[in-house]
Design a protein that fits this description.
The chain is of the alpha+beta class. A four-stranded antiparallel β-sheet has the order 1-2-4-3. The termini are far apart. The chain has one domain.
């Protein structure tokens, strides 16, 4: 058995997960073009959140609905290394992201100029899928994004009328 601690194992997989996400994107872009890579990335993020949402739902013993959605998203964002706050509203809840690890990776890799396009595509897809998995009676709106020059990302989740 390995002499690694549970934290080291978790850190290893976390870093590999982030690295492979960027690497495969750049390899598709290299082989084809940016638009093809973004299209494939969007397709991936139509499936990945389903896997994540179902896993977190199972881990936490959640049902469905707005309470399950906020609890699962808080867990997901914490696991991914986001800095954020969540707040219940009259119609649902809002998550305000003050630090995004994905944006930080793009900046670190010299791809800041692509943040806006990637962020608009991936975040809208990803969080809409979370809603469809855990609270299909809600709607998601991305009110602002750090990668679009806003101070924070504001993710708004509201009950549909």
């Amino acid at each position: 058995m390995s002499k690694l601690t549970s934290k080291q194992v978790a850190d290893y997989y976390h870093r590999c997960y982030k690295a492979v996400d960027g690497l495969w994107f750049m390899k598709v872009e290299e082989r084809y073009d940016f638009d093809s890579a973004l299209d494939v990335d969007d397709a991936v993020w139509k499936v990945m959140p389903k896997i994540q949402a179902r896993m977190i739902k199972s881990f936490l013993g959640l049902e469905t609905g707005s309470d399950a959605l906020i609890e699962a998203l808080v867990a997901k964002l914490e696991l991914d290394g986001f800095t954020f706050t969540s707040q219940k509203t009259q119609k649902g809840f809002t998550i305000t992201v003050t630090d995004c690890p994905w944006q930080n990776l793009m900046i670190k890799s010299g791809r800041e100029h692509l943040c806006e396009l990637v962020g608009k595509t991936v975040c809208n897809t990803e969080y809409s899928v979370w809603v469809s998995e855990l609270a299909p009676d809600m709607k998601f709106e991305l009110k602002s994004q750090k990668c679009c020059k806003s101070k924070h990302c504001v993710l708004d989740f509201e009950q549909q009328q």
